[in-house]
Design brief:
disordered C terminus, alpha/beta, seven-stranded mixed beta sheet, 9 helices, about 280 residues, about 30% helix, two-stranded parallel ribbon, 9 strands
């Protein structure tokens, strides 16, 4: 028991030291957390925003939420723009009730988390190769799990628009890894339904979305219902794309539901995408 306590204290001290040593000199007003750079084994880099609970406690592990931004969040400025989930989940009120580690990787301009035209809705993940950007994001998560006090049973993923597609794609690439997923205004692969039969998913979309057609979500939801999966689905009859993407503020109970979900360690498989280093 004492050795476990020492281990966690070392992990926490390392996390705090690494964060402090790379702190942004002038934090961006209104943007929580720190701007970091992830570097993989090949030397390729990806900006990401990292938020840690204000007080990391010894012998306590924390949920980790991977937040994928939409198309307008692409770039290099590393401000977690385009990810409403990041701003909601890092708010003082949310952290008081659900202290968690929140990360928001940033996709480069001209790239996509999923190499698929979102206007086409659902897609076949076996025919669409995993993107370099998705590989980087998942490898980043692997690295943070090694370095931070992450609860392996409470790793979550969410995103809206282009990030909604990314959320579906992340669980397609790693169906047993996440404890829950919240894809918003995206589209996924209905053929993965069997792989997601026991994965808690709350999908959100709108029939009035003219950017990412609701069919991209409906087809997956229908496939899941067909096999008896307990999928939660919220569909608005008329909201436009911008409005439905505000789901993290508008859908009642969503935040509490997310943090209630657990994934048994025996069912988890990291399916690591390679060695990498992170500049925390």
């Amino acid at each position: 028991m004492k050795s476990l306590e020492i281990k966690w204290k070392l992990v926490i001290l390392t996390a705090v030291a690494l964060t402090a040593s790379n702190a942004v000199a002038e934090p961006i007003a209104g943007v929580a957390g720190e701007a970091k750079i992830f570097k993989n084994a090949s030397g390729e880099t990806m900006p990401y925003r990292l938020f840690l609970p204000s007080e990391l406690k010894a012998e306590q592990s924390y949920p980790l939420v991977l937040c994928f931004h939409g198309a307008k969040g692409r770039g290099t400025e590393n401000e977690a723009k385009g990810s409403l989930a990041y701003s909601v989940l890092t708010s003082p009120e949310m952290q008081r009730d659900h202290p968690a580690i929140i990360i928001a990787p940033q996709c480069p301009d001209g790239k996509r988390w999923v190499n698929h035209d979102w206007k086409d809705g659902a897609y076949d993940s076996k025919k669409v190769a995993v993107s370099d950007e998705m590989t980087m994001a998942l490898t980043l998560v692997d690295r943070l799990i090694e370095e931070l006090p992450v609860d392996p049973t409470r790793i979550y993923v969410t995103g809206r628009s282009m990030g909604g597609f990314a959320t579906w794609d992340a669980i397609a690439r790693r169906p047993d890894f996440f404890a829950a997923a919240v894809p918003i205004a995206g589209g996924g692969d209905p053929q993965c339904a069997e792989d997601w039969a026991n994965l808690p998913i709350w999908a959100i979309a709108s029939a009035g979305d003219g950017t990412c057609p609701v069919s991209g979500t409906r087809e997956v939801v229908e496939a899941l219902k067909k096999i008896g999966a307990e999928i939660k689905y919220t569909e608005d009859p008329e909201k436009g794309h911008g409005d439905i993407c505000q789901a993290w503020e508008d859908v009642a109970g969503l935040q509490d539901w997310l943090f209630e979900q657990r994934n048994e360690p025996a069912n988890q498989s990291s399916q690591s995408t390679g060695n990498a280093t992170a500049d925390f």
